[in-house]
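User
Please review the sequence:
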Amino acid sequence: MQKIKNWKTQTKIYFIIVGIVVLLNIIAWSSEAFCDWYIRYVFPVWVNTYGRLTGLFPFSIGEWLIVAGVFLVIAAVILMIASVFRWIIRRCRTRHVDKRDECSSAHQVDKQDKCSRASHVTRPSTTQGRGRFDKFCCGFYTFFAWVLLAVLVLMTLNCTILYHATPFSEKYFAAVKSTDDGNENTNTGNTAEKGTYTLQDLTALRNMLVEKCNELSGQMQRTEDGEIIYEGNMGKKAISDMQALGETYDVLQGFYPMPKPLYFSDLVSQQYMLGYYFPFSMEANYNNVAYVTNLPATMCHELAHLKGYIQEDEANFIGFLACISSDDLLFRYSGYLSVLNYVNNDFYEAIGEDYERYMAEVQINRQVYEDAVFVRKEDWDRIEKEAVVDTEVVDAVSTGFVETSLKLNGVDDGMVAYSRVVGLLLQWYCQ
């Protein structure tokens, strides 16, 4: 009886929590003001407590939680299959015993009694074994249900609510400039929703980025092979630069946990990803196989998520601002490089892919192209050689997952959201 009461109490608590989470999601989707309040007053509490605790560990807890989750799902599937087979076998045995025990005449009574006695002797062990298995299944799936609920709660508190807050640009920048001067126009990223910029604006932004990258590429300390050398503590520098940016944008002030390298960086490279924010552990993680020019901007990008800016274009933009404001040459270079490709591609599309016109603008020098590499060739060759799963498969699965996750959180254009940083850059550049 006590077990039944405990089970009913657990069930009641479980569904109360589910109801609260559903309510929070409904409020988040319908109230931007609530999300802003949450990011300013509640979310920092998680970062300063839970985030500080996980930050004490030198490795990514979130990464290993995902590994544990994968094994848990596999165990659940195996156990479910075993339960189905066990039920089928049990049904077959029951039918067989029923047929065997049927007696059509009175002279078989003695034999039937012997069978019944034998069955009476042997069945308790079967029933006992069945009871242990059923008890284990019940316990496992109860645990599994609570784990799923924990995932739902953490995703809601540390991710979903953040997606529906007031955008960073609306808090700090003037309204988007609309053109009415008859010049050629271009809609870029999320600016299409709020106004338009002239092609002249986009061209000026693109040329500025190219000039900065060209200039900084020649100032880097390099090996004889041309690879960039960095001897500082990049994680600490990323934190200090984000905190310095907080002097201009107050929402970025406060504590930041140390960015952590991913143990499975090779697998992350196969996904063509530079880093992850893990809402389950409040951690900023980066791909330490990626070439050094990617790392400062990636660290700052992931740290931006820990201030409530979960939208990828906003994190890209904040990472850019933190890096270009740094007194560290590599950080400045990484910041400009991190957005160059987005802007350059938008510019090329805006001019109708007119190659001659493109060549008439400031050109990206060869060294910048070489520095803009995702992963060095020797590292990529090693990854491909040691890969357990083909890169195309990993990339397809990863892309599908990220696309689905973004769209479930209201980002309708999925991974295209990363490139919307161009609109934010124009807003910043033209203010």
